[in-house]
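[agent] plan:
  1. take the single chain provided in the ticket
  2. run structure prediction with default settings
  3. attach structure tokens to the ticket
  4. add a short note for the reviewer (M.T.)
[agent] executing step 1
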Amino acid sequence: MKKIFSLTAMVMVSAVLAQSAQPPNAAYLKSFEKWKAELVDDLKQNWLVLAGLFWLKPGANTFGSAADNAVVLPSGPAHAGVFQRNGKDVTVEVLPGVQAKINGKVQARAALKADVSGSPTVIELGSLRLKVIERGDRVGIRVKDLESAAARNYAGPIFFPIDLNY
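[agent] step 2 finished; step 3 output follows
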């Protein structure tokens, strides 16, 4: 009886080992590689480029790269302009001589749509992209730097080999 039990256990272990030695099918591998590429793209486009988040106070909020601004940018002009917050409404006024685009157009001032609108206004200032975000009663400016060293130097996540037993 012991020999039959031992033999049965060995056959079962062999079957499990043989099953785990089988590589995943091609469709699964393709979908996994697609998911990994999308993950890396999302990280590089949305997260590794984050350069700051600044909650606006009511009234005037200056922005630029100088330390005396309410919104201190990682690069660009020392004093680039002013965000004006009134409740949840935000407008921007860009100072004369500052090279900036608002939704792709050169403008000196504009009312800004927040991210909750579904189509937020984007301010381009060199490699920086600024947009208004709303979180409850808080209204802020999210800053992304498209030339971020973190995104540029990101080698991608490290994955362990696929094991279908998990």
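[agent] step 4 note for reviewer: The CA atoms of residues 86 and 144 lie 24 Å apart.
[agent] ticket updated
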